Amino acid sequence: MLTSDWHFDNPKTNRPLLFKHLDYCKEKGGLIIINGDMLCLMQGKYDPRKNKSAILPEHNGDSYIDLVINDTAQKMLPYAHNILQINKGNHETGVSSRIETDILQRLVERINTLAGSRIQLGEYMGYLTLSFSRNSAHAKSLNIAYDHGHWGGVITKGALSVVRHSSIYPDADVVISGHTHDGFIMNHPQLRMNEYKRKVEVRNQWHIKTGTYKEEFETGKGWAVEKIGMPKYLGSCFMTVYYNDKQNLEYTFTLTH
Known about the structure:
The chain has 257 residues and is of the alpha/beta class. It has a single domain (2-255), classed as Purple Acid Phosphatase, chain A, domain 2, CATH 3.60.21. It is 24% helix and 29% strand. It has six helices and eleven strands. The chain has a five-stranded mixed sheet, with helices on one face.
């Protein structure tokens, strides 16, 4: 499950839809990669964006940050052993810089302590490698580049970032990004030198925008309606990886609904 931009502590987040997708992933024994802005965290006393209507009752207390972290950790316990990695987004890094503690490190530590899980903490951008094998002699690696996101547009929906990300992550088989709350699957062919086969070949690099679970447009009012003006994709993307009989990896992508 490739996912991002939950804004989990925001009242506008569609939690039933999110838990539906998490439950499906858990049922299938899948892995979950959360690529930034898992938390919203905009209701601290230091934040000019704070709004009384934008805080859940269970988070409305003196220890606001702790309440969000502890509540989120408790609700993630059923999925702790499915979550592979939680990466940082601009919401987490922005708050961390203000209050001088790593918000997501606190959250990951909390979940791992309570569940005995081994969730990894990722930065704003980087690589992770998934290794698949039929036996130890024939392991295959899938290189995933993750980037919470930098570019996007109301009309392009972040599609122009595909070429930019391809230049930044030339060795990635799959590039995942979020931030703009758009959802798409796009293929970007590359002409590469295969050092193992000693030949030039065209390789397909896949780019995934992972959507959001924060619905900001149904009410017809608010910051997103006035500044963005266009509804966003609610959901995530499921990636299925096959290790075929020719000892190659094949993968498919499906946007949730």
